[in-house]
Amino acid sequence: MSLNLKSQIPHLTAGEYQCLANLDVYDSPECKSLGSQAATGRHLCVLGSDADAVRIVLCEDDYPGWLSVNDLHYLQPATVTYQATLLTTEEIKKLLPQVISFTHQAMEQSNYYLWGGTSGPNYDCSGLMQAAFVSVGIWLPRDAYQQEGFLPAIEMEELAPGDLVFFGTSQKATHVGLYLGDGKYIHSSGRDKGRNGIGIDILSEQGDEVSQSYYQQLRGAGRVVKCYEPQRY
User: Are 47 and 59 spatial neighbours (Cβ–Cβ below 8 Å)?
Assistant: First the structure.
């Protein structure tokens, strides 16, 4: 039976809201599998409902998903409609050292790999990248393949600290890390053939088993030169 937002939750109607706490965003109305997370202060649009979940889209990165009705009391109507802050390429370049610093600080905390994790301390690969750039006001798309498609590609010989490196198959990027310089990158990798959390690896066949495994999946690299501009709902 579908949830009647107006009768069962009088204060919640379709529209834009802000999160009062870190919330889990699920990939289906069953709310069993984490798709992403919404940190305190994020904006989202309520689009509809199904059973015990509410269909939403996160305003900053257009990520669709579902919230459990048990978390709806952590929403408040947005007093101001979300507007993206757009930075120039030069402004972004100056912020890259802070982006890198964020990932190092995240690595120093106790953490493990969490599929769908974006709020910390537990991240997935693209969640760590998104959180690191958001920490300085730069929004990127949510998933690794979306981040790859959003960024202009660069040659591996042009890699500079703050660039993103992508891994996966010939068809699609499934993993992403942040280049640190000197052939090293930082990323959150999984339990299988990974480090189950944030670690530093090298772009070389000469690395350990984890580095070698990812190097064999290397697709290319991209440079962050602009902020993501979301659609409007």
Answer: no
| Active-site residue (options: 31, 59, 125, 227) | 125
- Among candidate residues 43, 59, 187, 227, the one labeled active-site is 187
Is 187 a known active-site residue?
A: yes
% of residues, the chain, pLDDT over 70 = 94
Residue of 31, 43, 59, 175 marked active site? 175
Annotated active-site residue 11? The verdict is: no
Sorting pLDDT into bands at 50, 70 and 90, what band is 11?
A: low
Rounded to an integer, what distance in angstroms lies between the CA atom of residue 45 and that of residue 230? 12
19 is catalytic: no
Q: Which of 130, 170, 122 is nearest to 146 (CA)?
A: 130
Q: What pTM value is reported for the model?
A: 0.94
pLDDT in tens, 166-180: 999 999 999 999 999
Q: What is the DSSP letter of 171?
A: S
